[in-house]
Here is the input.
Amino acid sequence: MKRSQQAGEGEAPETQAAVLDRWMGGKTGAQKEGMEWIDPHVHILPPRRMAGLVRWVRKFTPGFPVSEEITPEEIVSALRESGIRLFFNLVFPLWEEETEELNRFNRDLCSGIPEAVPFGSLHIETPNKEKETRRCIEEYGFLGMKLHPYAQRFPAFDDDMRPMFEVLNEHRRPFLVHTGFDVFYGMYMDLQKMERVLGEYPGMQVVAVHALFPRFRLAHRLLSEYDNFWLDMTNSISCMRIYEDLKAKGDPRPPVAESLEVEDVEENYPWFRRLFEDFSHRILYGTDFPVGFGYHHALWEDLRYFGFGEAIERDLLGGAAHNLLERCGFGHLMPR
Ligand SMILES: [Zn+2]
Here is the structure.
């Protein structure tokens, strides 16, 4: 734990205690209230990539206590303790050469974990994108594909990616794509291209991971215009809670405020609320576990903080994921 102690130096003790509390295991309020939580956003990666991911998160999360050596067994047992009976496992290659290996890793890993639903991935330099997508969907039996254009550093909706869209469209499968947090990543996505793709491939179910944070007004319009558009609120609910806390305290803005894009959040705030009122049946709530903003009990508290009410909470935790699975012909995966 030497590294995390160093990273935590100079932090207010109460901040560190709060971080640690979010990263302790334990049951969630959802479990206590008998709500099913399907987690559409988990990362169990090969050891070297897992260590890299944890190191990267530690850079901007002082006191982040997750070990670089965390194993798949530890992650799965934490998920089970939190009552997660189904989760999507997401991988993405940082360079072309690891693409096939990573997809095979996800196939082999998930074949031994009854709760795990694997997603495949590609790189923009993958020479035959149709072939690799078909291998993932038709041969490995994956549910869909995931891209993280900011970490992978290429445009997700580029024309080069069309062979992947074609296969997903043909099979009516989900395409999970990182969206938003542009200031944090220092990157930008061509959202007009994204909208064009939504219209051109109506069978492909596009899940905007992080819900275009903080462009909730646009997210609302896209939900109302495209039936194949979905949101995943991973990290966005927690960031909106941090925003609310900052606003309530009226403190001079801490460094975190900049990457929260406070002015844009303010402008989009009414639309954040309206998303749930109008479209909770197409809004999922993932976690980025074992990175992100904490264990499931803390992320449940972040959701409950907004007081959306039970019907919306049930949709976010499981109903919308169920709807997505049904749409793709995978309704049988739902836990009974
Ligand atoms: Zn993620």
The longest strand covers residues 37-42. The beta strands are 37-42, 84-89, 116-120, 144-147, 174-178, 205-209, 229-232, 283-284.
